[in-house]
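> forwarded from #structure-qc
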């Protein structure tokens, strides 16, 4: 019940944010505003280093059209646990800036690239999150027993530090290349199915958890369908796929070689320039041989937010995500994605 209350409050907060931004922004008419999935994945420092893709688009760009965007994700992590063989501490914040571009190359075919820039550190959200938990009676989970804005990502097994990052840092992460094929489309009815392929290259520093050291291949299908026009347009969408991982540098003896993933979302367009949406993202575990959810659990996260049209070709996505599988993903993550097409 507490999590459902949090989700409801998150939706209300985002509506307030959207309304405030609208008051500062001149909005152009955008009757063709698309309802697209959030660009969201599990931001756990042990998961986001791999090539786990977001849902993507079910309607691809026309030949010659290009979309560029900047995705900003600020995530707060706190988890401390131990047993007879293992100890784990995930205490810090990660900010991820991702420049992404996709281009309609041929009819029903597009290509894309995503280049992340990652900052790990102590951050500044601890006080806010503690106050929020206290105000609504949520458990602090031990967060209030440690120094604020402390930073340590560590996993220790059999007396040996398998992963330890204890100093703030920043740099390029693992670059991802994508291509997508339109299998089916009805543009006028906002329906489509796309087949997506992605490859993630080991360009980030794995010792600092800005990369995994592995080359990952992802294959997935994304689909969407118009549900009707009661008080606005309603759209459902979803995705499902597999990620195949070569041996990396992070916990290689515990790493799984394949991971299943998927998303399911619902969007509502009550006004030509405004979309409200909710989305659940899930994946199977990336590692085995651990009793900790932070390492070896399947994960589900929930994101609520919306999209506003800033101009005829530009949109802004805003979202807040919460870990439905506690400790398998960050306590909270904030998403902003600015896109423009030309």
């Amino acid at each position: 019940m507490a999590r459902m209350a949090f989700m409801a409050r998150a939706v209300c907060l985002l509506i307030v944010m959207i309304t405030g931004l609208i008051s500062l922004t001149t909005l152009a008419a955008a009757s063709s505003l698309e309802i697209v999935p959030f660009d969201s994945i599990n931001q756990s420092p042990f998961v986001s280093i791999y090539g786990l893709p977001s849902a993507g688009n079910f309607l691809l760009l026309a030949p010659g059209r290009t979309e560029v965007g900047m995705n900003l994700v600020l995530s707060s992590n706190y988890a401390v646990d131990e047993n007879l063989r293992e100890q784990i501490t995930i205490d810090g914040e990660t900010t991820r800036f991702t420049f992404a571009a996709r281009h309609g190359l041929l009819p029903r075919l597009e290509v894309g690239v995503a280049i992340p820039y990652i900052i790990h550190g102590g951050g500044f959200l601890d006080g806010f999150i503690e106050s929020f938990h206290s105000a609504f009676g949520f458990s602090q989970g031990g967060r209030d027993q440690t120094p604020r804005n402390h930073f340590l990502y560590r996993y220790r097994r059999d007396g040996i530090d398998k992963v330890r990052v204890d100093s703030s840092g920043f740099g390029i992460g693992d670059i991802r290349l994508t291509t997508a094929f339109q299998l089916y489309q009805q543009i006028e009815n906002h329906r489509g199915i796309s087949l997506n392929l992605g490859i993630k290259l080991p360009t980030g520093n794995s010792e600092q958890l800005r990369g995994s050291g592995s080359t990952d291949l992802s294959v997935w299908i994304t689909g969407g369908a118009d549900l009707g026009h009661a008080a606005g347009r309603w759209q459902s969408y979803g995705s499902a796929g597999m990620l195949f991982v070569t041996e990396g540098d992070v916990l290689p003896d515990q790493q799984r070689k394949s991971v299943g993933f998927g998303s399911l979302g619902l969007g509502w367009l009550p006004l030509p320039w405004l979309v409200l949406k909710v989305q659940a993202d899930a994946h199977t575990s990336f590692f085995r041989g651990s009793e900790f959810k932070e390492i070896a659990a399947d994960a589900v996260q929930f994101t609520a937010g919306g999209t506003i049209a800033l101009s005829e070709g530009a949109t802004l996505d805003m979202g807040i995500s919460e870990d439905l599988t506690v400790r398998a993903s960050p306590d909270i993550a904030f998403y902003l994605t600015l896109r423009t097409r030309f």
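QC bot note: Confidence is low (pLDDT under 50) at residues 1-13, 15-31. The helical segments are 2-24, 126-136, 293-296.
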